[in-house]
Write a structure and sequence with these properties.
By secondary structure, the protein is mainly alpha-helical. The chain has one domain. Helices cover 73% and strands 4% of the residues. It has three helices and two strands, in the order H-H-E-E-H. Strands 1-2 form a two-stranded antiparallel sheet. The radius of gyration is 17 Å and the shape is globular.
Length: 110
């Protein structure tokens, strides 16, 4: 039950993050979350981290689906090799994608 509620919360955060990027690029910048008052900064940082986890999980699942052809018999630390590759690429590329989204949002809002 808890996992289901958390997954819905993550999906809503990712959906709102993408919606803000597409329809309100001026509000998209992560730098605007860094206010001086801590109680205004904490919810924004939690939202950003949850949205990044959701994006990373989306990338991970899509890369894992692309690696269907790799044999799952090669194990590293009790995990199949395609899963390790998908995790490292999926969550690794999330930071790069967010950085590029922020650059595009700056250009679109200027």
């Amino acid at each position: 039950m808890v996992f289901a509620v958390f997954s819905v919360f993550v999906a809503l955060c990712v959906a709102s993050y993408i919606w803000i990027f597409l329809y309100r690029p001026a509000l998209f910048r992560f730098a605007q979350l860094k206010t001086l008052v801590w109680y205004k900064r904490i919810p924004g940082n939690i939202y950003f981290v949850v949205a990044m986890l959701g994006l990373g999980f989306m990338f991970y699942k899509s890369i894992e689906a692309v690696l269907w052809w790799m044999p799952r018999t090669v194990m590293i630390a009790d995990r199949p090799l395609p899963e390790i590759i998908a995790i490292s690429i999926g969550f690794g590329v999330t930071g790069f994608v967010v950085m590029k989204l922020e650059e595009i949002a700056k250009e679109r809002s200027a």
